[in-house]
Structure formats: C-alpha cells, structure tokens
Amino acid sequence: MAKGxxxxxxxxxxxxxxxxxxxxxxxxxxxxxxxxxxxTSKLKHLTSIGEAKVEYGNPIIEVKADKEGKKLHIIDQGxxxxxxxxxxxxxxxxxxxxxxxxxxxEDSAKDSGIIGHFxxxxxxxxxxxxxxxxxxxxxxxxxxVHWSCDGSPNFTLKKSKxxxxxxxIILHIAExxxxxxxxxxxxxLLSKYNKxxxxxxxxxxxxxxxxxxxDAKEEDAAPTVEVDNFINNPNPAWTKQPxxxxxxxxxxxxxxxxxxxxxxxxxxxxxxxxYPFNLTGILYFPKLSNDLSAQKDRIQxxxxxxxxxxxxxxIVPEFLTMLRGVIDSPDIPLNVSRxxxxxxxxxxxxxxxxSRKVADKLSSLFKNNREDLEAKWNDIKIVIEYxxxxxxxxxxxxxxxxxxxxxxxxxxxxxxxxxxIKANQTDKDDKLVVLxxxxxxxxxxxxxxxxxxxxxxxxxxxxxxxHLMQKLETSKEKISxxxxxxxxxDKLIQKxxxxxxxxxxxxxxxxxxxLEKVFGEKSSYTxxxxxxxxxxxxxxxxxxxxxxxxxEMQQTGGGGGMFxxxxxxxxxxxxxxxxxxLVGEILNTKTAKKKERLINQSLDLAKLxxxxxxxxxxxxxIKRSYEMVK
Length: 630
Ligand code: ADP
Ligand code: MG
Fold this sequence. Notes:
eight-stranded mixed beta sheet; binds adenosine-5'-diphosphate; Rossmann fold
C-alpha cells in the first residue's frame, strides 16, 4: 500500500481563483473594504485591551480611483502588517488572519465584528486586477513593507518608506475590468455592499451649499464648499438596542434603506438574539397589495454590517419574504449551496425564530392595540394568511389574533365569529356556516338578502383565502364556509324559514314543470322552490360552493386545466320564491308564449344579478327589455 499527499501546484491554482473563486467579480471591492474594516476593528480592539499602545483616533477608509493610471486605491488606517505578517497572511493563500485573530482573543474579541473568515478574500483582487500592490506599515515599531504581485504566483517584497500606520492596496485594473474605475460603478458598489459598514468610507468629495451671508445680494449665488464624501452610515439602527430607538428612528432608517419608497411602513419588529445563534435585524411590514410575486427580495442579508445578498430564501420563512428590512447574522453559512443551507440546523433555528418573533409582535399588537391592528389588517392580511397556510406553528398562534372583517367593517377573531353566528347560522348537520362575500359590488344583492335574514357576512377577498378556508374547515370542528351566492345559503334559509307557501303542492308541481320546460333539458339550472317573504327576490341563482372553488383553483393553475381535469361542468340552482307576486303571475299566465317570455326574462335578470349574462345573451336581453318598456 502506498500513502502520500496530493500535490497541488500553485501555478494552476491562480488562474482558477481568478476565474471561479466568486461568480460575481464585483465583490472584490467588498472583500478589500472588509479587510480594511477588519484591520481597523482589530486595532480598536487591541488599543481597548491595552495591547497596542497607540492612539486609535478616528480612522477612515478611503477609496480613490485613478482613471488615467488605471489604478484603484483602497487605503486604511488600521493595524497594518509587519514584513513577517505579510509573508504569513498574504503569501499563504487560504490562511485567514481574521480567523487566527478571533481564536487568539477568543472571548474578548467575539463582539468585535471581525468579518474575514476563509482567507480567500484578498485574492479576489486578481479577478479585476492584472497586478496588485500592497503597501503597509504596522502599528508596531517596524519599517513599512511593499508587496507586489502580477497575478503569477511570483511576488516581490521590499521595504517601504510609508510613514503612517495602515495599509494601501493598489489594484492595476485589467483591460476587461475598466468599468471598476468609473465613479458611477464604484459608487454603486459602495452603496450596495458597504452602506452600513462600521468604519467611515470616503469616496471623492461632494459640493455642499452654505447659507448665504446676511449682506448678500438677491442675485448672488449661495457659497459652496467641497467636503469629503462619506458613503456609509456606520451605526445603522439594527445595531442599536431597541430601548435606545424611537418610532421615528425606525421610520427614518426605513427611508434610508428604501429611498424610493414613499409610503411609511405599518410597523416594525426588532430582532435581537445572541443565543443559540447571533442575529440582529429589523423587519418592516409595508402596505402589501394582493400581488404576491411583485413583493419579494426586499429583505437584505448582512454579515457584520457587510451586505451579502437580498435573496433570503431558506433563511427567512417563505411567507415573510414579502416583508422588508435587514437581518444581520455572522452565523449563516453563505459559502455553501442554497439547498444545503435549508437543511442546516442553525439556519432552521433562525427561520423559526423569525417566524415566532413576528407572531409575538402581532399577538401583542392584538392585545394592546387592537384598533390599530384592525386599521392595518387589510394591508397585511396576505402575509398572515400565507403564514397560517404554510406553517402549523404560526397557524396556532395566529388563530388567536387573525381577524375576519365583515362587509360592514367589523372585525372578528375566529372565536368571536363562532360565538356570533352559532345561534342562527347552522345547517341541518349542525355545522356552522360562515357566509362570506369576495366582492362587495358584484355580490351586492346576495349580501343584502343574507343580511336581511340576519346573517353575518364576511368580506374575504385575498387571493389565497380559498386555501385558508379549506384549512380552517379541516382543522376546526363543524365549520364550513359558503360564499353568499353558494347553495349553502339556501339550506340555511330552509331551516330558518317559517314562511308558509302561498302555493299548493299541486301548483308548485305545475310551476316546476313549466320552468323546466322553458330552461330546456340540457340546462345547467336546477329548479328549487322556496317560500320566502313576498318582498324577497323572485329568482336567485346560487352555485354549489365546492364547484365554484374547484373552478377558481383551476383558473389560478391549482389543478392545471391542462392535466386532464377538463372543464368543470356548469351547475347552478335557480331558487324561486313561491310567495313572490311575479311567480304567481307566471303560474297563472294562460298563453304559452307569454309564459315563456316571462320565464326567460326572469332567468336573464337572475343571471344578470350573478354576473352570468354575457355576449349574445346579454344583447338579446337588452333588445327584449327595450321592446317591453316601449
Ligand atoms: P480573511 O479576511 O478571510 O482572513 P483575506 O484573504 O481577506 O482573508 O485576508 C488575509 C489576511 O491578510 C487577513 O486575515 C489579514 O490578516 C491580512 N490583511 C488583508 N488585508 C489587510 C489590511 N488591509 N490590513 C491588515 N491586514 C490585512
Ligand atoms: Mg477578508
């Protein structure tokens, strides 16, 4: 048997790094600024524990573009490196000085916000540069060092006259990456990745307008000055303690994150844990529309204030990806694939922590400020309904605060609703029937009829409510939902109705035959005779709840019309009020022609009221109606 060590040749590794290290070349700047930030944070830590006996001062990081010389400079005032350190940290690929620092200062440095991890960030510079120089001077009393490498594994190392502490990285930008010398491109990258990093980052200058002196003339222009342009807010709201922030601070941070968003967020949730994982952040509930797909990718993920991604899939529960805000956690393994991420234990805990915090916030809002929750309900319900559908734990909590609005603007919890309707909204099997409308305008006459009977009618209009109703029907006992134009309502009416029919059984039979004859054999209308109050509508069309829901799901792609389900047959009931005058008149009309006309006209009116009268039938109806009024 032979044993040995696989020999990795550096000459081959370099082009690999350049090509494959990161899929996005633009992240080189994030990596170099992260290193500059780490160098500064380390110095801060060392001065705070007395190990570095130098003045920490107010260090900044500067980015300078030299378009003519095709060079990009990243300059920091951090701890710098000695020659020995350059050899160790820079010349050894995949040796992380950040990791080493954290291990060495274990406890005291754990909150220092050190970013580096894998010891590969520095080399990302070669994705855009054909040559990289590093000029550095340590805080220790040692000479400066000048390291330079042209992308081959060969480097040069010499002494440098650099006087002030810190490091300057000079990238000689390659021909295919000249975009990274453009002010706009650099600004874009800085504001994408570095907007909330903890050390001030300077890029160029900007012009500021000063107030006019008092003796200035009207036509005098206001004086201006050139000032350093700092691109970041080193102390973003999420890094602070909730107790130190006012409502207005949260709002202004929201505006900072989403400058193009003019609407204020409805409320926020401050996340803050350090055990069993580290996570901080602020989530905002914006006003949500009913369009689910349009509102994703608004939560940004950071690690120690460095922007990583706005794809939080797998980390934030799916139903909460409609929210906005930031989460910042050093504990999310981002170098691994997304599918692995979803199986990762820590990530799972993070996800369920976030959904628990959201449920807690809503629940406390419900308890302490129900009016406010009611006012905001229609703008946020889609998230909550989605959450109730997709997560059982969230369902359990939300079931206590989820609100069901009525068509008249009252809001009930499910328990309250049950209490409210149990006296008169049960069917033959003693099931509670929750009546709802999905469109106040289109179902107006049905709503009115139901209300006249003393029924509560909810207004449930979100696109996923059908699924939630199904879930409630299976998870609660003896509950069913029925839209106001569904046939359940007929059953309720039957049970409740104490009206005596004006028609004899014989007359009823004749009426039924008459109607069915006109509707024709292949008709999708089933005649149902009922004795109602004489001023209730004479003809009403209802549709089995089940059939309608199936059709709706087919339309939204649920069962996929393409996959053999075929078209659902049309099935309607036509409910005839035997106590209505018109119905009596139809029965007593002698001429068959006239009778047929009355029945057809009545059927068309009933169809019209349910929105079923369309096309040629509508045109025909209108013509006929004009004839009649003439
Ligand atoms: P990581 O940041 O993951 O440790 P990098 O490849 O980005 O790995 O950097 C390697 C090491 O080089 C760092 O850990 C640090 O010790 C050193 N280094 C890089 N840039 C600087 C800098 N601007 N100032 C001081 N040290 C630096
Ligand atoms: Mg690094």
